Amino acid sequence: MDISLFKEMNNDIALSILQQVPTPVMAVNRDMKLIFINESGLKLIGKTFDQVCGLPCREIFDSKHCGTAECRMLQVMEQKIEPLTVRNEIKVDGRTVPIEYTAAPFMDKDGQIIGGLEYLLDITDRVRQEKKLKEQSETIKEISTPAIKLWDRVVILPVVGVVDSLRAQQMMSTMLKKITETSAKVIILDIQGVAAVDTAVANHLIKIAKATKLMGCRCIISGISPSVAETIVQLGIELKDIATNSTLQDALANAFNILGLDVAEKD
Predict the structure, then answer these.
(1) Angle of CA points 176, 181, 183, to nearest 5°
(2) Number of structural domains, the chain?
(3) What is the pTM of this model?
């Protein structure tokens, strides 16, 4: 094909490409009035180009950012900055559609900004998947940090696995919530399932014990194995006034003693 002929056809080819892009693409002038929208955009809003041409874009895409300082289209035009990508929501035919849109300045051949360009993606499936993953994550957290009412005013929190800062915060939140729900006076923190205890883990346990004490509840740490006890001594970690027991059975007996309860064998 002759190059000169190709140059003459270039505008038509560019327009054809925009029309066939499978995501909505639109352009507005400096007054934020629509001057172009491709077929995908028209399909999304369910209107023809004649129905929307020249309308303020906020009347076409009723979004959270429309008419506010959060509008990225206004930002790129007024501040002459690079393209911006952000999430938003639009309302179409009475339904809310989560989107991710990118706004960029629209320039003439002299480099002057004469409007704005925008293309958007419908991220409904992505948001739905993210919500599902978040719910699964919350479920896993609850399963991995279960606070169980063991006896009247006695709650146990069995800990299995690694205790890092995030896990420790989850444990603390779970325990404090359970104390409020059950009016517990004794919390047993069973760490039998924790393979290793270092200074960081010990500090986390101490903080949890202090937090429960502020709630008017005593904390007993049980399940301390010989190796863990040895490590704590070697590291010079002071558990201070936190009660400790090697077994859960001993911890429960300790809890009963704190509550002034006696357990007797039935004849």
Answers:
(1) 85
(2) 2
(3) 0.51
